[in-house]
């Protein structure tokens, strides 16, 4: 599903990015690459989202996630147009 | 040693680079004591800012670059920053890292090191990192990067002396070891191949770091490709690059540039993992709680609207006494001094009716504009703008704009010129162009006096509503035009936007004032040049005519005035505006409003023979009907951007689009004014 539709508070993993060259690059530079786990901090329901980048595909989600989500709090606003181009799958609900 | 001798011959150059919103501008101010915009809005520094700093009894040039995430030119800001580093070849690049978000900051550091820049790292905002519960091992970071690292808290001035010390040391010629990221055997092999071809052009590899050049070529960086194209062996290089890309993409099964970016990010991730220790967990910060309300699905929009309303109240009500004071100073005090002096009549009239009336009628808005800019700067420094962009994005998206467009549109309420320049922070080119092109439709403070005068003449009872309707009409038209431009001229989907959400911060009064001043300066400059010239021109065209010099009496005598150039211009254009029923004076005022819309009021004051602007509403109530006056207001709102705005559009988008803006606005203004008349008359309005 597009990141734009991901429910608030959920953890999602980036499956693929269907964007042009410049944009995919920029996303990767900001840490949003296929395999990365994101926490959806805020959504407006099929609109822009605020996310936190939580983890890495090389580590298991549960280890990394607790550490990162609670410690970094570095948030990124992703506009509607961009959020529709990032396809994600759900990993876990927030406890 | 060679670095030292270079420093003796040329001025030392120091560039500040960092991700958006990392505190570069604050560090710039700390280092130079100079001025730069400082904003808690990613991408505030939209132009290259230069200041001075003393190093070993020498002046060094400090360049404050716009915020960038990497050295791949993606947005205009990034291109400006990167070219500055490539072209100016600064002796030292001070790379400012966000300690509370080190992983993302390190991406740029790594890119800079790959480029072979002489980097000094300032690890800024360590206080925020601590607040969030983690500690950074500075020694480890220094070791891993191989460059000096200085922890700082820029807004409190902590660590600045140490930073200066490190910059000095670096200037004396400590060479930064080149950082080599291993991109994996296959990629490294191709990089080697490209380098061996590059080495055939000694001039090229003298100018740029060859490994960096090879990597950028693999990344299909258009700007670098252009640079390489100038080489004599360009075709050989590009052929090799093409071959390498093909080999690699087949071997890796994916886009090579994404692969390289990911490797680089992984490297940054590894460094940050080794240096950052979590000391305690912070479940929810106050920032989170505020964000919950401000970015709320239901409350977000009402919050934006009330903040905007507050901005207006602040800008217009609080500033009123100052406005009255300035008005009195020019319209009464100075005017009377000149008029009662013993100078020759022509000189007196020139000074009083031309220069003083002209400058006065503009400076009257200065308090409103300053107060509005103070409010906007406060919001930016607080960190609210990024939240506003989030909330508004969904609505903007529907109209072919993005959340980021909201900032230039709000700034436009003050003045369109800084607003158009602020569009540079928008990454998507189409989004940027559309936001800039529709910006003149946002009713700037220059248009307010026109509404106020007309409202005072016809709509005393509902003055507020009438004036507000103009602002809403402007916004509505801006949105409609955006959609139209998106559909017809700048087609293609918007890529949307990505920006970091900065933590809330207490604005520093100094920073707010510096930024307000930077923006106000543009307005004052406009008042001092364009508007002054325009009013003098109006005056000159009013006292002369086809028959030659008429005399200053023309300004008081309407029948004489009809024979002046102004009268001729107004009358020639009158048939065009026949349906609207405006008389030639109103039309002549429009003509002069080309230069700046404020002039419409002062010109009307002159043409209708009103002694001071107090009397103008009374004169107008005889010349217009309420309906034609309302159409006139709408026309003033829409028709042509002022000269300064046109110049800004030309500077940002090029002449072609400046002309497009000019034409579409004239047509739109005519249509809207006509529509108001055509709808109004059958409804029985007059």
Can you offer a commentary on this structure?
The complex is a heterodimer of chains A (95) and B (686). Chain A is α+β, with helices and mostly antiparallel strands and 95 residues long. Chain A has a single domain (3-92), classed as Ferrous iron transport protein A (FeoA) (SH3 type barrels). Helices cover 25% and strands 34% of the residues of chain A. Chain A contains three helices and five strands; from the N terminus they run βαββαβαβ. In chain A, a hairpin with a 5-residue loop joins strand 2 (37-43) and strand 3. The longest helix of chain A has 11 residues, at 61-71. Chain A is globular. Residues 57-71 of chain A have low confidence and may be disordered. Chain B is of the alpha/beta class and 686 residues long. Chain B has four domains: 2-171, P-loop containing nucleotide triphosphate hydrolases (Rossmann fold, 3-Layer(aba) Sandwich), CATH 3.40.50.300; 185-252, Helix Hairpins, CATH 1.10.287.1770; 306-492, no CATH class; 522-680, no CATH class. In chain B, the strands form three sheets. A six-stranded mixed beta sheet of chain B has the order 2-3-1-4-5-7, sandwiched between helices. In chain B, helix 20 (406-414) runs antiparallel to helix 21. The longest helix of chain B is centred in the C-terminal third of the chain and has 35 residues, at 509-543. The N and C termini of chain B lie far apart (83 Å). Classes of the chains: A alpha+beta (95), B alpha/beta (686). Chains A and B meet through helix 1, helix 2, strand 4 and helix 3 of A and helix 4, helix 13, helix 19 and strand 9 of B. Strand 4 of chain A pairs antiparallel with strand 9 (498-501) of chain B.
């Amino acid at each position: 599903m597009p990141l734009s539709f991901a429910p608030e508070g959920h953890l999602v993993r980036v499956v693929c990015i269907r964007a042009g060259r410049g944009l995919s690059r920029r996303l990767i530079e900001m840490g949003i690459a296929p395999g990365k786990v994101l926490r959806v901090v805020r959504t407006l329901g099929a609109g822009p989202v605020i996310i936190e980048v939580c983890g890495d595909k090389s580590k298991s989600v549960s280890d990394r996630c607790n550490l990162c989500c609670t410690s970094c709090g570095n948030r990124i606003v992703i506009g509607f147009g961009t959020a529709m181009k990032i396809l994600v799958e759900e990993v876990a609900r927030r406890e | 040693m060679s670095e030292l001798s270079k420093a003796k011959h040329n001025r030392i150059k120091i560039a500040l680079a960092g991700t958006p919103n990392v505190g570069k501008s604050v560090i710039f101010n700390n280092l130079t004591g100079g001025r730069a915009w400082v904003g808690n809005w990613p991408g505030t520094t939209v132009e290259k800012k230069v200041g001075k700093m003393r190093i070993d009894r020498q002046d060094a040039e400090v360049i404050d670059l716009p915020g960038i995430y990497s050295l791949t030119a993606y947005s205009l800001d990034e291109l400006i920053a990167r070219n500055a580093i490539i072209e100016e070849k600064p002796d030292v690049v001070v790379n400012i890292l966000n300690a509370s978000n080190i992983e993302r900051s390190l991406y740029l550091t790594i890119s800079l090191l790959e480029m072979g820049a002489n980097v000094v790292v300032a690890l800024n905002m360590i206080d925020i990192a601590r607040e969030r519960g983690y500690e950074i091992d500075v020694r480890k970071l220094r070791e891993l990067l191989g460059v000096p690292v200085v922890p700082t808290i820029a807004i409190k001035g902590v660590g600045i002396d140490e930073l200066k010390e490190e910059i000095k040391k670096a200037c004396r010629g400590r060479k930064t070891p080149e950082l080599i990221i291993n991109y994996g055997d296959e990629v490294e092999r191709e990089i080697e191949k490209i380098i061996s071809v590059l080495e055939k052009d000694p001039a090229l590899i003298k100018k740029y770091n060859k490994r960096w050049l090879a990597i950028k070529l693999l990344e299909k960086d258009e700007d670098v490709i252009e640079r390489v194209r100038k080489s004599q062996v360009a075709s050989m290089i590009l052929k090799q690059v093409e071959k390498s890309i093909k080999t690699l993409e087949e071997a890796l099964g994916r886009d090579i540039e994404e692969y390289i970016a990911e490797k680089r990010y992984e490297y940054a991730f590894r460094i940050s993992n080794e240096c950052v220790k979590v000391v305690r967990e912070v479940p929810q910060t106050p920032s989170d709680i505020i964000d919950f309300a401000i970015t709320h699905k239901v409350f977000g929009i009402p919050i934006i609207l009330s903040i905007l309303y507050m901005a207006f109240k602040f800008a217009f009500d609080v500033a009123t006494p100052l406005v009255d004071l300035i008005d009195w100073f020019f319209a009464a005090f100075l005017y009377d001094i000149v008029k009662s002096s013993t100078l020759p009549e022509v000189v007196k009239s020139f000074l009083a009716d031309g220069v003083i009336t002209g400058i006065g009628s503009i400076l009257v808005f200065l308090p409103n504009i300053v107060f509005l800019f103070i409010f906007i700067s406060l919001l930016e420094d607080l960190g609210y703008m990024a939240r506003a962009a989030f909330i508004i994005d969904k609505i903007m998206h529907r109209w072919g704009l993005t959340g980021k467009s909201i900032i230039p549109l709000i700034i436009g309420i003050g003045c369109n010129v800084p607003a158009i320049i602020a569009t540079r922070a928008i990454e998507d080119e189409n989004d940027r162009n559309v936001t800039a092109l529709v910006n003149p439709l946002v009713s700037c403070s220059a248009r307010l006096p026109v509404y106020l005068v007309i409202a005072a003449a016809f709509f005393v009872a509902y003055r507020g509503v009438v004036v507000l309707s103009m602002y809403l009409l402007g916004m509505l038209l801006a949105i409609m035009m955006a959609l139209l431009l998106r559909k017809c001229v700048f087609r293609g989907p918007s890529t949307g936007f990505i920006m970091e959400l900065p933590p809330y911060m207490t604005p520093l009064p100094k920073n707010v004032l510096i930024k307000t001043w930077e923006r106000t300066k543009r307005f004052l400059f406009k008042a001092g040049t364009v508007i002054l010239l325009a009013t003098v021109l109006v005056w000159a065209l009013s006292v002369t005519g086809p028959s030659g010099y008429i005399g200053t009496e023309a300004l008081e005598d309407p029948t004489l005035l009809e024979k002046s150039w102004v009268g001729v211009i107004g009358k020639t254009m009158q048939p065009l505006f026949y349906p609207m029923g405006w008389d030639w004076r109103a039309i002549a005022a429009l003509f002069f409003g080309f230069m700046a819309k404020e002039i419409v009021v002062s010109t009307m004051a002159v043409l209708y023979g009103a002694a001071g602007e107090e009397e103008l509403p009374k004169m107008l109530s005889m010349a217009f009907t309420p309906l034609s006056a309302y159409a006139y207001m709408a026309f003033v709102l829409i028709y042509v951007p002022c000269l300064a705005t046109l110049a800004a559009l030309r500077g940002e988008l090029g002449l072609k689009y400046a002309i497009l803006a000019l034409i579409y606005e004239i047509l739109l203004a005519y249509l809207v004014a006509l529509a108001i008349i055509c709808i109004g008359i059958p409804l029985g309005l007059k």
